[in-house]
Amino acid sequence: MSNALASPQAVDLTTLTAWDHDHVWHPFTDQADWLASEPLFIDRAEGVFLIDLAGRRYIDGVSSLWCNLLGHRHPALDAALRGQLDRIAHSTLLGLTHEPAVRLARRLAELAPPGLTRVFFSDSGATAVEVALKLAFQYWRQKNPPEPQRRLFLALDGAYHGDTLGDVSLGGVPRFHAMFGPLLFPTLRAPSPSAQNPTESLQTIDRLLREHPGQVAAVVLEPIVQCAAGIRVHPDGFLAQLAQLVRQHNTLLILDEVAVGMGRTGTLFACQREGVSPDFLCLAKGLTGGYLPLAATLTTDAIHAAFTRPHAATPDPTFYHGHTYCGNPLGAAVALATLDTLLREHILERLPPRIDQLRRWLDRLRSHPHVAEARQAGLIAGIELVRDRSTRTPFDPSLRLGARVCLRARHYGAILRPLGDVLVLMPPLVISEAELEQLCSALEHALHDELEALP
Fold first, then answer.
1. What is the model's pLDDT at position 4?
2. 155 strand-pairing partners
3. Cα(12)–Cα(7) distance, rounded to whole angstroms?
């Protein structure tokens, strides 16, 4: 085998492209299309901009898959990472501990909704949710008195909580999850709430919990916005009513804030918009400002107490779950710097003008003949494209209009990624007025170009 890949010498773009096509399997990417394309190589970044090998600059319109909060190469985050490298890059949390993880757990407990005092670290959004599922399942078997019959979970239509098998069992996006059906555990399913019928979802959840008394381990959802479902924004008050319903039925509430947390909806945690404290809060993505993989599952002292019986107890109360890089010191150090920077620089207090700017642009776009809806929560937006807005007739999926618009946007200096025919905007929280105007203009021009080109 050639050792060319190990060479420190520069190689030309043609060779890099060949190596990519020969060796790299890109996630959530049609392989045939990719192998027929000329890939865009990102070489470096600065602020809200990604820069390719030719030096062309693109606004990072989806925050490098919804995780970059403070821009690229932020001085405080860079310094935290370099400082930790001078101490240690990694040490396990299995039977040991280290200062960055301890400090981060303490900081999260201080900032989180009331009652969330215990932090289990992992390395991705999927693992954060998987940890919550397993903890909830085991908790019911170890509480006093135990309730081992609680083995069901309830999720919403359009749910997306990650790609591990437990998360996929909760999932409700057929194009992502249908293939794996034979491998999954059964999940109770309620409709996603909508402005047109805001009570249907709550009524269904109530009915399902009544039909399965004492059998549901937890209700699981993304609060405020279901992102991968197409930026479905829940009606105001839905989360608070759901939390009350869950308490009435004496089950647990797991909130997946992997995408919607860390300021995306205008508050540090999305559930704070409606004053909700869940039993489990799952964080990842923006937790490290988009620098390194790190996730956290926050829970309560009451949940933790069920895992603290003497080790001689039967059954063994230990939570036998973990990841090699749980609480990685580098990730923990940069996460602390992210939280400190959000607060010190008053990032959340500075968001309302950008949120209003995005809202004004979406209001104008809503009159477009091919825009069914333009949905927004904080600095998250989804523009749903249809062939006929009066009948909500979709475009032929084979046209892949959303993908074409996003590719065209690169000609106008923006990197975007759609969800089917929903165009997604989720820029870094520090985007300026001029940069947000440039991003919205790029998307609008790209949409016009691709619609004009349709047969």
1. 47
2. 189
3. 13
Q: How far apart are CA 18 and CA 366, in angstroms?
A: 42
| Whether residue 346 has pLDDT greater than 90 | yes
pLDDT tens across 92-150, in order? 999 999 999 999 999 999 999 999 999 999 999 999 999 999 999 999 999 999 999 99
- C-alpha to C-alpha distance for 376 and 372, rounded to whole angstroms: 13
CA distance 70 to 287: 11
- Contact present, 245 and 190 (Cβ < 8 Å): no
CATH number of the structural domain 40-69+350-452: 3.90.1150.10
Q: Check: CATH 3.30.420.40 for 77-344?
A: no
Mean pLDDT of 230-252: 97
pLDDT tens-digit map of 375-412: 999 999 999 999 999 999 999 999 999 999 999 999 99
User: With contact defined as beta carbons under 8 Å apart, do 17 and 34 qualify?
Assistant: no
Query: Which stretches of 260-329 are assigned E, i.e. beta strand?
Result: 280-283, 295-300
DSSP H or E stretch at residue 9: none
454: pLDDT confidence band, cut at 50, 70 and 90? Answer: confident
58 CB neighbour count, 10 Å cutoff: 22
Residues 6+ apart with CB under 8 A from 344: none
Rounded-to-integer distance, Cα 200 and Cα 447, Å: 34
This prediction has a pTM of 0.95
Q: Name which of 280, 277, 281, 261 is nearest 269 in CA terms.
A: 261
Alpha-carbon torsion 26, 30, 36, 40, what sign? negative
Q: What is the pLDDT of residues 67-79, one digit of tens each?
A: 999 999 999 999 9
- What are the domain boundaries of the chain? 40-69+350-452, 77-344
Give the tokens for residue 270.
Answer: 């999305």
Tens digit of each residue's pLDDT (9 = 90 or more) over 299-323: 999 999 999 977 666 678 999 999 9
Interatomic CA distance for residues 452 and 423, integer angstroms: 17
Contacts of 172 (CB under 8 A, 6+ apart): 155, 156, 157, 158, 159, 160, 189, 229
User: Is the link from the previous residue into 315 a cis peptide, with omega within 30 of 0?
Assistant: yes
DSSP string covering 12-69: -HHHHHHHHHHH---TT--HHHHHTS-PPPEEEEEBTEEEETT--EEEETTHHHHT-S
Number of alpha helices (DSSP H) and beta strands (DSSP E) in the chain: 15, 16
CA angle, 360 as apex, 359 and 363 as ends, to 5°? 85
Q: Which residues pair with 253 in a beta bridge?
A: 219
